[in-house]
Predict the structure.
Amino acid sequence: MAFASLQEFFAMGGHAPYVWSAWAVTAVLLLGSVVHARIERRQLIRDLQRRERRERRVGSEPARNLADDT
């Protein structure tokens, strides 16, 4: 192991603030990417289901003749 103790590992040779903040930012961005993808997926599925219901409803309605409305 490159570090003699766990305390030295967490101190990262004096570079701990940079190293651990870089790890934290990376973890937050990766987590945010996963959460965003899941939200987008749910929204897409909802939109597709809504579109399918609308198309079924419109397809089952009898055709209206707009000339008869005058």
